[in-house]
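call fold(seq) -> tokens
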Amino acid sequence: MVDNDLHDLGFLGLRYTWSNNKNGSSKIWVRLDRVLMKSEGLRLAPLVIVKHLIRIASGHCPLLLNFTPITRNSRSWLRTLKALFFWSRNSLKDLGELKLSLEGRIEELQLQESTEDGLSEDHQLELRREAGELNATLARLATWWRQRAKTKWIEEGDSNSHFFHLNASARRRGNIIVEIQNSNGDKIFDQKLI
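ret:
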């Protein structure tokens, strides 16, 4: 599936899509049926929903594929996301300006401190207060950048993205045992025997 850029869309509803319709311990439930979509399709229809409907005359559940259009609420939600993006960017700008302002004031106070007269008690308190505020601002900036890094992973590492599948495929390939050598020195390739 990964090699063909196909992604399982998941589902809502019943857990299994097929039953052998037997009773007791011989009853089998399996999720055989699923909907796969290429990345381009997911890009064009990001809100697609798969629902497992109830079985009536067959062992298989019918699958309902719903391409949910962007509704008025979704548009409102998208506007809110856009507003949050600009708010976040302005917050960073404000934090950056605050950082520069605090650094400038601390530099002034430290220059004054290095003169013969030194700092008055009030200015020493101000210097400590400004240094504490600068540390808090730097911590907030670091948090902002750390969150942005997580957002980048989420954007490029989402479970339905090519980026994620390349990483998962590389890990899966590294976890596969292709051959094994027994105590007699014979190589075994059969996956069942491995």
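The CA atoms of residues 41 and 127 lie 58 Å apart.
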